[in-house]
Design brief:
With 161 residues, this protein is an alpha/beta fold. The chain contains 4 helices and 7 strands. The chain is globular. The protein starts with a strand and ends with a helix. It binds adenosine-5'-triphosphate (ATP) and magnesium ion (MG). Adenosine-5'-triphosphate binds next to helix 1 and helix 2.
Length: 161
């Protein structure tokens, strides 16, 4: 299976999707969050961090581009590449280094950097009127292939599609 679509009715629905995904996460996983402005990428990340047991307030890394959260089952490095000006700057953010230490990377607008992040779960958010969002999950690389089927089962049962 290559792709799964789920509908989120409101911010709580997106949080539910984040919680179900969080249960499957392991050290060094990469989540690329894509989709329009205000579609729910940061809302998703807040819920994901909470589900991992992170108690810090999670805010959008709009200006600093990277925030790191520790203290949960896994540490999370949350980045937003919307304002990244040159692809070369990506190396300066230390994401790969954090990943090697075992952090989960959650990267908003991660699709803007061609060739980066070749092994990742890709979560795409699209406005569908009002609070409705279509959330599409897919994956790249080989690391997610087997897990994706299990995750899709959990999401279908837990959220409905
Ligand atoms: N179904 C939904 N899922 C997620 N957020 C929703 C939903 N319905 C309403 N919202 C609201 O939409 C807004 C989403 O903003 P958020 O900052 O998460 O978007 P974003 O994708 O991170 O945007 P940006 O690209 O600017 O970083 C929040 O105010 C949230 O409460
Ligand atoms: Mg955001």
């Amino acid at each position: 299976m290559l792709k799964l679509d789920v509908t989120s009715q409101d911010a709580d629905g997106t949080a539910r999707v984040a919680r179900l995904i969080s249960d499957e996460l392991r050290p060094r996983d990469v989540l690329l969050l894509t989709g329009e402005l205000g579609a729910g990428k940061t809302t998703f990340t807040k819920a994901l961090c909470a589900a991992l047991g992170i108690t810090d307030v999670v805010t959008s890394p709009t200006f600093t581009l990277v925030h790191e959260y520790v203290g949960g089952r896994l540490s999370v490095v949350h980045s937003d590449l919307y304002r990244l000006e040159r692809t070369g700057e990506l190396d300066d953010l230390g994401l790969e280094e954090a990943r090697r230490r075992g952090a989960v990377l959650v990267v908003e607008w991660g699709d803007l950097v061609p060739g980066a992040f070749d092994d990742a779960l890709v979560v795409t958010f699209a406005h569908a009127g009002g609070d409705l969002r279509n959330i599409t999950l897919t994956w790249r690389g080989s690391g997610w292939e087997a897990r994706f089927v299990r995750l899709a089962d959990r999401l279908r049962t837990g959220v409905g599609s």
